[in-house]
Design a protein that fits this description.
By secondary structure, the protein is of the alpha/beta class. Helix content is about 30%, strand content about 20%. An 8-stranded mixed β-sheet has the order 3-2-1-4-5-6-8-7, with helices on both faces. Helix 1 links the parallel strand 1 and strand 2.
Length: about 210
């Protein structure tokens, strides 16, 4: 069994990941801003704090075997500010495995090689603030020595658990549609024991 440092445990995808991990008997150390937002569980250690705070991040990662981040972004560069602390904390604990939830915008464009999707005509978003934050987090991981994977889902409705989806390394599968939070969480969690997508962004869609 493993002890997993989980960021974003109260989010939609984070909750799915946590449920999977607990069903398999793993222990979780979850960093939570508001502890009332998560149910008590004997295998969950709740650490109250913020992912932009160095001490909170180090306390969450201390003694763990792997890191999973399902943190969302905001207008204050939440992902960049958290990754600044996550990587040193992982090194301090001799942890190499990290799985994060990204966005399809940071995948490589097929139509305009050399560009990210959010920089290309493939993206319909007028504002790129969120994608820029995701991109900075990706570049920090890419320049690190970590065994990282970034799961990059398309449009992410609550949806339902279907169990069948398409993946593609570093790009988005052709004719993408959506992917539910359940299948996104299931896929991300499945990577905990796989190295197939090591040091890779993975496009995920139905």
């Amino acid at each position: 069994m493993m002890k997993i440092a989980l960021f974003g445990a109260t989010g939609r995808v984070g909750r799915v990941i946590m449920q999977n991990a607990l069903q398999d008997g793993h222990e979780i150390q979850a960093l939570i801003r508001d502890p009332d937002g998560i149910d008590a569980h004997p295998k969950v250690t709740i650490i109250k704090g913020d992912a932009s705070n160095k001490k909170s991040v180090f306390n969450t990662i201390n003694g763990c075997d792997a890191v999973i981040s399902a943190l969302g972004t905001d207008k204050n560069d939440a992902l960049t500010r958290s990754m600044i602390h996550i990587l040193p904390a992982m090194r301090a604990n001799s942890i190499s495995k990290i799985i994060t939830i990204g966005t399809a915008g940071i995948l490589d464009s097929k139509k305009e090689p050399g560009k990210f999707r959010f920089h290309s005509k493939e993206s319909n978003r007028r504002l790129s603030t969120a994608a820029e934050d995701h991109c900075r987090a990706f570049l920090m991981l890419d320049q690190s020595s970590m065994n990282w994977t970034i799961v990059c889902p398309t449009y992410l409705p609550d949806g339902e658990r279907i169990g069948e989806y398409r993946t593609e390394m570093n790009t988005l599968p052709d004719s993408p549609s959506s992917i539910s939070m359940y299948d996104t969480g299931d896929f991300a969690y499945s990577l905990l024991h796989k190295d197939k997508y090591s040091k890779t962004r993975v496009g995920l869609t139905y």
